[in-house]
Amino acid sequence: MKKDRNFDDLAKKFAENIYGTAKGQIRQTVVWQDIEYILEQLNAASPLQVLDAGGGIGQISQKIAALGHQVTLCDLSSEMLTLAEQEIAKNGLVEQYRLVHSPIQEINEHIPAPVDLILFHAVMEWLVDPITTLMGLLDNVKPGGVISVMFYNYNGLLFKNLICGNLTHIEQGMPHRKRFKLQPQQGIKPDEVYQCLTEAGFDIMGKTGVRTFHDYMHHDRMGDYSFEQVLDMEQKLCRQEPFLSLGRYIHVYARKPLTEATPTLMANLNHSNKDKG
User: Fold this and answer.
1) Does this model's pTM top 0.85?
2) What residues does S-adenosyl-L-methionine bind to (predicted)?
């Protein structure tokens, strides 16, 4: 029976490879721009309640916590949580955090009420049933709150295999190659994520391609550039089509409508109809 990926065996290596590289820096930069916009839209007078679902060491949520917000970080891996605890203490953010050792699917047991913001970043591609897990998380967003979802893009994975000439691998359905332990187990089709959000009544606020071209470059034998140029170009292209949809990851964020907005709208419509009569 398949199980969700637990990173107890690779926690330190995973953290170093994800966050200590050019790929990680690009990812952090473009996603943080979106998070800043989300926080601006939430415009809270008091600290937000944030859930970092499958948050690993909490790189993004620590930046949110540093702004004064309260974060619950859950992860399946106890080793990841140990690393997160060390990083959080080192950055002086212990008072802003609550760490929960739990599968995402059981997070309802650990949070008392829906939250203002959920981060669900680079987790879906490691799950047995990613869309069902996402659907379950949506119930934990309070009305007016936002979910921020970043996933390993199926289209980006397909494009990478096409330009590398891995046509047989594509024809076989692009099965996960076990020798690449840090490569996600599957690509997630963007339309399935967007459909899940909209069918749940969420309004998609924005989409961003994460590493729209960096991973496709032949870094050893092409071009004249600096990393600063690459980062600048990624930021320029990441929200434009067709580049957005070719990102190795896609970040999409969506807002749950305020439930009290519906009666207000109906009242306005009724009033308008009376005026016409």
Assistant:
1) yes
2) 27, 54-55, 75, 121
